[in-house]
Write a structure and sequence with these properties.
Structural class: alpha+beta
Distance between the termini: 26 Å
Number of helices: 3
Number of strands: 7
Largest sheet: 7 strands, antiparallel
């Protein structure tokens, strides 16, 4: 497994940053390689990605979600194996630190080489920067889902 961690400070209140992150169908607006995401339930999304010419489809399940704190997920089925968590940290009334941690299993030679030379880390950093530009240029979230999902076993 490869692990990537990236943080970005955004000049919006924590509620705004969190609300925008729950709008999964908007991810293609700031995540390179994400073709589409369909919300198929409160806890499940269907992703289509195209990276380095390879199209992959998979579902992701929300494994934990707490408003203004965190969203955690894992892939279920499909063409890729990954899990992650995004946490939100209040820096001030108008500034939030968003931290993204992604664990994934590179498949095939190209992904393994890309991971080894840090392409995945660069991609997450660039996506975080685009999220910052997206949410700061809007100033408000495109929507919100404020539901609470407890970690399995709690």
């Amino acid at each position: 497994m490869s692990t990537v961690t990236e943080s970005v400070d955004v000049s919006v209140p924590i509620r705004t940053a969190y609300n925008q992150w729950t709008q999964f169908e908007d991810f293609p607006k700031f995540m390179d390689g994400v073709e589409s995401i369909a919300q198929i339930g409160d806890r499940r999304t269907h992703w289509v990605t195209k990276i380095a010419g390879q199209t992959r489809e998979f579902d992701a399940e929300i494994t934990e979600q707490h408003p203004d704190e965190r969203v955690a997920w894992k892939s279920v089925g499909g063409d890729t194996t990954h899990a992650g968590v995004v946490t939100f940290h209040r820096l001030s009334d108008a500034e939030t630190r968003v931290t993204i941690q992604l664990d994934w299993k590179p498949e095939g030679l190209a992904e393994k080489v890309g991971s080894a030379v840090g392409v995945d880390s660069h991609q997450v950093k660039a996506d975080a920067k685009r999220f910052k530009e997206f949410i700061e240029s809007r100033g408000t979230a495109t929507g919100a889902w404020r539901g609470d999902v407890e970690r399995p076993g709690v």
